[in-house]
Backbone:
């Protein structure tokens, strides 16, 4: 993030030189730090005792130049030049990068660093990140619980979960499960049959519509946008799904109808029917004949 975007109200140019040095030092930090930690990182010529640094930081918070955060692994407040929302986005997406988990699991792994948010606020913020496409949402096979990840929840994540479940059921290690999987050769010796190329996102959508349609041909097929989105959870999600639908519409392959009464839907159902770009709540997708 550009420094000018976070050194807002108060105006950096209007600050005294020692305070400017503090703001610049915090801008270089990857996360909030305490006054004592910041004091140790300042050049010797700029160093003061931690109490003086603390006083200056608190003054900058009052001027709305910096932000204060609750203690983490200690008793001292932390300071940073990013807002709580920016810090929460960093913490949540970093944890979601490490491990796929339910909202409750993800929230519990972030709570110690985000004490300034209530449990409900943290859960709502995770939902916001998912709605904006900064988190990916899906389900593992055999589970109804939604899982959150910084990356699309695709075949590899599903496979790793399945291996973990098999290991637990058989009381063996995941490595033992992997060792028992025999790789299958996709071609016979001497075969020159090429491996199928990757298909486009639009083709994936049309293939899924074909599976959902009772007729052999997709021409004239009508499917629910929400049901189609759920059916493609582990193939195409978020912005990729939205973009594929928009491409099909742009190429005159499908038409979209809007929902007649969006207010009757739950927030989750409304989100499932939205396509990024116009805020409309859609209902059905109709394949042109």
Residues:
């Amino acid at each position: 993030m550009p420094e000018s975007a976070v050194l807002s109200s108060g105006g950096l140019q209007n600050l005294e030189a020692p305070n400017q040095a503090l703001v610049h030092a915090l801008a270089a930090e990857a996360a909030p730090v305490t006054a004592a930690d910041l004091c140790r990182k300042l050049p010797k010529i700029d160093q003061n005792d931690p109490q003086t640094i603390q006083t200056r930081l608190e003054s900058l918070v009052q001027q709305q130049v910096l932000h204060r955060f609750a203690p983490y692994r200690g008793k001292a407040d932390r300071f940073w030049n990013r807002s709580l929302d920016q810090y929460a986005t960093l913490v949540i997406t970093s944890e979601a990068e490490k491990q796929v988990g339910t909202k409750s699991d993800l929230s519990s792994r972030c709570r110690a660093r985000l004490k300034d948010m209530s449990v409900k606020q943290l859960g709502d913020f995770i939902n916001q990140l998912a709605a904006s496409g900064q988190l990916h949402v899906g389900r593992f096979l055999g589970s109804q619980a939604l899982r959150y990840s910084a990356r699309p929840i695709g075949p590899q994540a599903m496979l790793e979960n399945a291996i973990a479940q098999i290991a637990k059921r058989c009381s063996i290690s995941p490595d033992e499960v992997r060792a028992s999987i025999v790789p299958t050769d996709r071609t016979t010796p001497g075969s020159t049959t090429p491996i199928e190329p990757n298909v486009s996102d639009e083709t994936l959508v049309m293939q899924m519509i074909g599976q959902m349609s009772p007729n052999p041909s997709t021409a004239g097929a009508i499917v629910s946008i929400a049901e189609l989105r759920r059916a493609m959870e582990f193939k195409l999600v978020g912005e990729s799904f939205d973009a594929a639908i928009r491409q099909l519409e742009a190429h005159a392959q499908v038409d979209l109808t809007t929902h007649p009464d969006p207010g009757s839907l739950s927030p989750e159902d409304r989100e499932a029917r939205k396509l990024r770009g116009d805020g409309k709540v859609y209902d059905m997708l109709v394949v042109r004949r």
Q: What stands out?
A: The radius of gyration is 25 Å. The longest helix spans residues 155-170.
